[in-house]
Amino acid sequence: MSKIAIVTDSTASIPESLIQKLNIHIVPYYIHRGKEVLRDLVDVQRENFYKWLESAKNLPQTASPGPGDYLQMYQKIVEEEDVDEIISIHMTSKGSGAYQAAMVAKQTIQEMIPKLRVEVIDTLNVSMCHGWMVVEAARQTLSGSSLENIVNKVKEMMPTTRMIQTADTLKYIYMGGRIGQAKHLIGSLLNVKPLIGMEDGEIVALGVARSRKQAYKMIVEKVEKAVGSNGKVKIAYVHAAALEEAKKIRSLIKERLSVVEELFAELPPALGVHSGPGTVGVCYFPVKE
After folding, report:
1. What pLDDT is attached to residue 179?
2. What pTM, to 2 d.p., does this model score?
3. N or C, which end of the chain has less CB nearby within 10 Å?
4. What is the pLDDT of residues 66-80, one digit of tens each?
5. 198 near 92, Cβ under 8 Å?
6. Which residues contact 79 (CB under 8 A, 6 or more apart)?
7. pLDDT recorded at residue 170
8. How far does Cα 262 stand from its chain's mean position?
9. Is 38 helix (H, G, I), strand (E, B) or coil?
């Protein structure tokens, strides 16, 4: 039986406990803060970064790992774990160069090790939506599933795994150039809470609310509409330095839906720099079981 390794990067937002338990290999993004070049969740951690970000006058720049970073990870896995196959899963290629970099690394390592099989997947998503696909792939790997079946599982999840998030402002995501098709919301955000999601790999507007309470209610209604009142769901409550707010969404979700699995996931600095502290939301997918 072939031995398969799962690779992703720090933007998947997967809790550390699951990363360790499922043997997921993480390649860090880069954060350029002034003259500093920091590796996401290696040289910079969430708590200190968000405290600094609240008063930052200029946003740091983020950069995806390069082909060399992925190549180094692929080589390390082959040397240390003696794998035959690698599945490398990445956030939307429309918002990051990670997928393209991994494709270059794939070509290079397969020239070096022709017997090694590498499958690179563009999830067309972000945060724990991307993360859920990695988690489910890793679970299937540990259960002995084939590469084809794992890749098919991820691709099946792509159309139904959804993100909805809200924040007090879209300032950070706008300043970071990741506003996508939600640009029209920028001029009307003095007293409203925007809801954003992702469609076909790009950020889109999902509506606006007059308060956080109303925004959370709208999030729950959108999840329920997508899943169905009798449906089951796996859901991550994502946030950026806003755990107590994420818990409020959880309370509303638990009242309305059958939750098969849930977790809290704090955005890493490489994502949080674009959404800003105080961001909360959900990443979920319906479960057929």
Report:
1. 47
2. 0.92
3. C
4. 999 999 999 999 999
5. yes
6. none
7. 58
8. 15
9. strand
